[in-house]
Amino acid sequence: MFKKVVLVEDFQGENQGITETLTEKLAIEELQTEFYCDNAFNRLKVALKNNDPYQLMVTDLFFEKDHVNRKLTSGQELIKVARAQQPELKIIVHSMENNPIQVNALFKEHKINGYVCKGRRGMVELVNAVNEVFHNRTFVSPQLNLTAANNSFELDAFDRAILKELANGLTKKEVSDKFKKENRTPNSESTIDKRISKLYDEYEAKNTTSLLFKLAKEGKI
Amino acid sequence: MFKKVVLVEDFQGENQGITETLTEKLAIEELQTEFYCDNAFNRLKVALKNNDPYQLMVTDLFFEKDHVNRKLTSGQELIKVARAQQPELKIIVHSMENNPIQVNALFKEHKINGYVCKGRRGMVELVNAVNEVFHNRTFVSPQLNLTAANNSFELDAFDRAILKELANGLTKKEVSDKFKKENRTPNSESTIDKRISKLYDEYEAKNTTSLLFKLAKEGKI
DNA sequence: AGATCCCTTACAGAAACCTGTAAGGGATTA
DNA sequence: TAATCCCTTACAGGTTTCTGTAAGGGATCT
Questions:
Q1: Residues B128-139: pLDDT tens digits?
Q2: Is the Cβ–Cβ distance between A117 and A98 less than 8 Å?
Q3: Which of A36, A64, A91, A165 could potentially form a cystine with A170 if both were Cys, beta carbons 3.0 to 4.6 Å apart?
Q4: pLDDT exceeds cutoff 70 at A57
């Protein structure tokens, strides 16, 4: 079993529960727990420098903002720099995120080794995940596959740029003008209209209002 | 200290962490833990019947849906029936909800005794909350007060009804027609316009799209 | 009773939304 | 080179949104 593990989780209760699970059920000898991404990354760096690197990182994705200044503000950012620094590090993500697109991106872009949804069976699954990853396999919470076929349209950069401005209350004409002024292209009102109309189809929305509402509710923007 | 406590929390990791805190730090003798509201309510009922009622309930608000059929689907519902059945039961809510309006409603409508935000200091605060509540005082996570002055406009039933339909993609005329058909009043397009315009001011939105987006993001609808 | 306030409603006009048609241009393919 | 596809853009027109004015009615206060 893994000997040296770091846990990154900002919720104290969850943190405590995971710690107990990892030390009791999995007999991890050296478990370090962190509440901030920056601290976790420093710890990884120092351990690597001392030729005694961590073998596994278990991390959340969302970290609450508080009074502490942060460079790394999300699990994604932590994973990116950790992976770059130590390519052989095993990474298991434990989060509430249950959007298969987001999860897939983690496996593809950051080569994570396991994904566990927070939930009623979170700790059972985490134990399985650690075992699987220890044997060089991957693990994904079973409930994710069920919803995988749902809706897998991607929002590209242009979509997001438009949606951001609309969410902020700009009219399509104003969005067009803004893009023109900033030399962003495409920028015509007509093209923006077309893009949004396409999103109506993809997300089964009837107008801008219902589209933005749905996307906000689903956490896509 | 409380002797007989029930914990209602569906996330296994969090559940485990809280259990450890309550038993280790607070020396609760009889702690029962539940993952579903219905089970928790049954347990309260049976204990009351046997003249050995629970003294304290610690509960989450949001419970994930799964394959199990549920009557009580939220902490609010559980609290309502539990309070009706056993008025002297102490209730502490432990949740991610950080909207002061929602939290205030819990204190006013359901007479809860404490509120703890999940977060980096969740367990520390929970220990304080239990101690305060044991001495017949109330407890509220300090970070809530900070944001309490922010924006405390209430959405009444009419507001909510309109917003729900708009979020669903209906035009204001369609909302008006629907209300008329269902004999709900007021229902004129003009009144609906006026209400929404008032919300633009209160929530600093420029149009329906940005209003719905903001409210969705803030979890108000 | 009269004055006042607030909510509801009607109406009007300018702005914005939404959809369809069509033209131009770059990239790909035959 | 020609045909085709796709993206961008312009434009048109019907619908919806948004704001302002004004009228009517119920509740409250004097």
A1: 999 999 999 999
A2: yes
A3: A165
A4: yes
Residues 132-171 of B with CB under 7 A from strand D: 171
Given CB atoms, is A123 within the 8 Å cutoff of chain B?
A: yes
Nearest to A90 by CA among A117, A71, A115, A118: A115
- State whether B120 and A10 contact (CB < 8 Å): yes
CB distance B39 to A40 below 8 Å: no
Interface of A with B in 92-121 (CB under 8 A): 94, 118-121
Helices (H), A11-73: 12-20, 37-49
Question: Is residue B90 pLDDT above 70, yes or no?
Answer: yes
Which site among B22, B174, B210 would you substitute to test the A interface, given the most A Cβ atoms closer than 10 Å to its Cβ? B210
Quote the CA–CA distance of A82 and A104 in Å, as a whole number.
18
Cis omega (within 30 of 0) on the bond before B100? Answer: no
Distance in angstroms (rounded) separating the CA atoms of residues B190 and B176: 9
Answer whether B78's CB lies under 8 Å from B41's CB: yes
Q: In what order do the strands lie in the sheet with A56-59?
A: A30-34, A4-8, A56-59, A90-95, A114-117, A139-140
Residue located via tokens 């029936």:
B81
Among chain B residues, the shortest Cα distance to A207 is held by B169
Query: In B, which residues are within 8 Å of A16 by CB distance?
Result: 16-18, 20-21, 123
